[in-house]
Amino acid sequence: MNRAKTIGLAALVGIVAIAAGMLLSRALLDRSGGPTLAKATLIDPARPLPPMAFIDEQGKPFGQEQLRGHWSILFFGFTSCPDVCPTTLALLAQVEKKLADMPTEQRPHIVLVSVDPKRDTPERLAQYVKSFSPTFTGITGEQNAIHEFALKMGVPVAISEQPGGNYTVDHSAAIFLVDPNGALRALSSTPHEVPIIAEDYRAIVAAYPPST
Questions:
Q1: 37: CB partners within 8 A, 6+ apart
Q2: What is the SS3 assignment for 88?
Q3: Model pTM?
Q4: 172-200, pLDDT tens digit by residue?
Q5: 194-207 and 84-98 helices cross at what angle (nearest 10)?
Q6: CB 197 within 8 Å of CB 94
């Protein structure tokens, strides 16, 4: 079994474990009177993110510290993606607009985590993410580190070779909500819908103010 397939299989195993934990968290939360969500799966208590030491589209260091002090939405994708990534990023740009009436400190920062760091240089990421919204951030890094981070987040990533020496990257289209403490607070799987994402986001932010 090659490394790409191994990564994909291991990630799928991780997803099963994470999903089971999140279902338990949701059941416990429901009993404790937490927010009622339309679709997103709440994680309570929030789960610390795996270690991350990447760079953003400006070439500046990006780690847990850059996720603290505000809410963030993480999405894993890559600039050469033909369909899922541009569709999801366009949708998240609509979500951002729909939440524009919220106080600045409560609005989400949208972050694209590249699963194709070999091709996704900071310059390429900058051109790509800013075409969806000037506020979007793209992050990249060493391939092994990126894939390890994705694996620990429960995101399956597999490189598929194509004729002519080209390749594509298969990955999950889930989106992850990170709280101001830099911890994973919720996630939402496909199919994504702008009104539902926005509705769940508002409910979660209201339930977990900064003081908590």
A1: 186, 200, 203, 204
A2: helix
A3: 0.83
A4: 899 999 999 999 999 999 999 999 999 99
A5: 50
A6: no
